[in-house]
Amino acid sequence: MKDDLVHTVLLVEDAPCCRQYASYLSDLRNVDTLDLKQATVSKIKPYAVILFIVTAPVTGNMEAPALLSRCVRLLDTDTHRLGLLTVGLMPDDQAPSLLGEFDQIPLFYARSDWKPSEFTWQDQMTVSLWKKAGTVPEWMKPLLASQGGQNFASPANLDPVLDLIDGRL
Q1: CA 4 to CA 111: how far, in whole Å?
Q2: What is the DSSP letter of 136?
Q3: Helices (DSSP H) in 50-166: which residue ranges?
Q4: Model-level pTM?
């Protein structure tokens, strides 16, 4: 059955930064892309590699997407390779951690572009509260001072993800 599997599907959250990294991966490897909201276990079961691409909140800690939770329970982890690529603003040394019981799933992080206009409302609220309380993290202060327009996204950020796709991980 393993030989019958189609290679890789990207399950992409509907956010510009996630779509940007999905585009990079599509340029680097032959992958299929599916909107995360449209994904079902039956749609992704034929794939050998299932990579979720989701935004990381500015706070760093995040819950696993509900679909990832279902997939871990319903797919054969001996046959399917699952991964989670989080895309966010934090520097690499501040990369997000995953809350919950998914330590067997490889977690990747890629830094995205600084575009405050594309923040989720949760991130906008968090930054606003940080500013009011005077607790803005050190890594964010230069970004806030720049008023946007800094580009951190790069296909080079995906090298560890390519190891998963190519079966080296």
Answers
A1: 34
A2: -
A3: 66-74, 121-133, 141-146, 159-165
A4: 0.84
Taking the C-alpha atoms of residue 135 and residue 127, their distance in angstroms, rounded to an integer, is 9
What pLDDT sits at residue 38? 86
Residue 5 has pLDDT above 70, yes or no: no
pLDDT-derived band of residue 1, with 50, 70 and 90 as boundaries? very low
- Asked whether 36 and 11 are in contact (CB, 8 A), the reply is yes
Q: Are 107 and 84 in contact (CB under 8 A)?
A: yes
Give me 26's structure tokens. 């599509």
Neighbours of 43 (CB within 10 A): 13
Q: State the pLDDT at residue 2.
A: 47
Q: Please choose, from the candidates 91, 97, 9, 89, the residue with its C-alpha nearest in 3D space to the C-alpha of residue 53.
A: 9
Question: 27 vs 14, 111, 121, 141, 159, CA distance in Å?
Answer: 19, 18, 30, 33, 13
Ranked by mean pLDDT, the top range of 15-24, 78-87, 138-147, 148-157 is 15-24
Report, in this order, helix, strand and coil percent for the chain, each rounded to 5: 40, 25, 35
Pairwise CA distance, residues 111 & 95, whole Å: 9
